[in-house]
Amino acid sequence: MTDMQRKPLLAMTLDELKTVVQSLSMPSFAGKQIADWLYKKRITSIADMSNLSVANRTKLSEAYEVGAYAPIQVSTSQDGTKKYLFELNGRYIESVMIPDGDRFTLCVSTQIGCKMGCKFCATGMQGFHGQLSATDILNQIQSIPESQQLTNVVFMGMGEPFDNTDNVLRVLEVLCADYGYAWSPKRVTVSSVGLIPGMIRFLKESQCHLAVSLHNPIAEERADMMPAQKAFPISRVVEEIKQFDFSGQRRVSFEYTMFEGRNDQQRHVDALARLLSGLECRVNLIRFHTVPGTPFKGADEGKMVWFRDQLNKKGITATIRKSRGEDILAACGLLSTKHLMNQ
Ligand code: SF4
Q: Residue with the nearest Cα to atom 4 of ligand 1?
């Protein structure tokens, strides 16, 4: 947990670190040195910044702290997937680390709970309990034991990233900047139900991949499952996306969780093909894991294969996603820390 009195340095951009050192009358190159300690060497204490003078470290420590904090619990699935629990002043968030051969993907949360209220989602049922700061988001990436092994990060945990756009964009900057993690933006995917203003900023200000939670291409049916459809219809979301270039390295994908009888019919194939025509993209078909308290049931394997083949025949690239971490409630839509919140 971060010290409430002192400001966290973790997730500050280089410009912000330069402002900090200036305000403390430290040499201007100290901003870059601090960025190195934070993002390359990943230290957890200002005392470890050994190329700053003791006097400067003391001065810095009076107003600032690193701000990194370790998870308080880890659950490990039979398939190696790990779910980490972080505590923030009596509230809780989760991140999920998914190993796959030499790939290590971390799924991070951007909010405590979520306002979007998707009817099939455990996080949505938990309601909204607050924004995560950029420090809290980056800390999930920096403070797990596998931090240095991570090959990919996906913003698909608890919360809607474009309902916390400033903080998400700041984390993307630190992940991709030379002074930060210096990752290629190809290693990062941000997932959204399609909140257009934040999505457009993301598409303009970063080069990371976009994944849109689509789940139903028919407006009235989607609105029944996903209230966000009313303010940001999927047809408008896709129109906006079509204004950007996905013919190079950057990718856009559409997440499509398959529910029995609700979004697995021929009319859905046809509507999806119409909606996505002319856009270089991929549709990821996701198995639904029953969320206690929802009336939704997952489509069976045969139906998913049929749906994929129909889409492929229409020229839409579609794949069925492997399911991971179901036994520890780490799979898509299952993240919830409600039981910890005493409500
Ligand atoms: S699916 Fe995503 S956007 Fe919808 S309620 Fe769950 S966390 Fe929020």
A: 118
